[in-house]
Design brief:
alpha/beta; Rossmann fold; 4 strands; globular; Ptyr_pPase; Ptyr_pPase_sf
């Protein structure tokens, strides 16, 4: 891994889970991780309930835009996390790949999205502990 690791979060629509994960990674890594998110069939906007759920945590993802998954994004990342949505990513040797089985927040109310958000936060905290050296 490079001095500043990069993490790519992938889900089909890049509108909910991957956006929440990217929001947490940016907020919790204090700029020590390059963060990307993308989807194979991106929606035209972020899921408003995901935006609301993250706002409750003090994290603003409202101005993010879903992006299309590219081979370059995978190639340029040290860690590639798919969100349990069956997305297939190009495989490059030397990368770390994980699939996080997470419920899809699409069409769900805030009560259903909060536990998904909290699960993502716990996974982000665990991942950060693995990929970042302890602060001196």
């Amino acid at each position: 891994m490079s001095e500043k690791p990069s993490v790519l979060f992938v889900c089909v629509h890049n509108a909910g889970r991957s956006q929440m994960a990217a929001g947490y990674m940016i907020a919790l890594s204090d700029g020590r991780v390059d963060v990307l998110s993308a989807g194979s069939e991106p929606k035209d906007q972020i899921n408003p309930i995901a935006v609301q759920a993250m706002a409750e945590e003090g994290i603003d993802i409202a101005n993010n835009t879903p992006k299309v998954l590219t081979t370059d994004a995978v190639r340029d990342s040290d860690v590639v996390i798919t969100m349990g949505c069956g997305d297939t990513c190009p495989i490059f040797p030397g990368k770390r790949y994980e699939d996080w089985e997470l419920d899809d927040p699409a069409g769900q109310g805030i009560e259903a999205v909060r536990p998904i958000r909290d699960d993502i936060k716990a996974r982000i905290e665990h991942l950060l502990a693995e990929i970042l050296p302890e602060k001196a």
